[in-house]
Amino acid sequence: MAITLTEKAASHLQSFLARRGKDAALRVGVRTSGCSGLAYKLEFADAVGPEDHQFESHGVRLVVDPKSLPYVDGTELDYAREGLNEGFKFRNPNVKDECGCGESFNV
Q: What is the reported pTM?
């Protein structure tokens, strides 16, 4: 079980995490939302609970709660710029279907 970052995503995140403090990490999870059922959520993790799973990729610490892990296991997080838009892209091998707008998915 693991979540990974591309070098580009890690590079983008490192400056933000450095400003948060030495123990800051990125929390990756899912929430119920959208027309397909689930949506990704990203937030800073200043504290890690005893049930949380931790991973490291390219020097960035990632934290995932136990309920989200089955939905995001094997995901690679990338950072991309497309024209004027930029943001994180999730490459999740568990996704069976996505909504037309790309905001939600199901497994």
A: 0.84
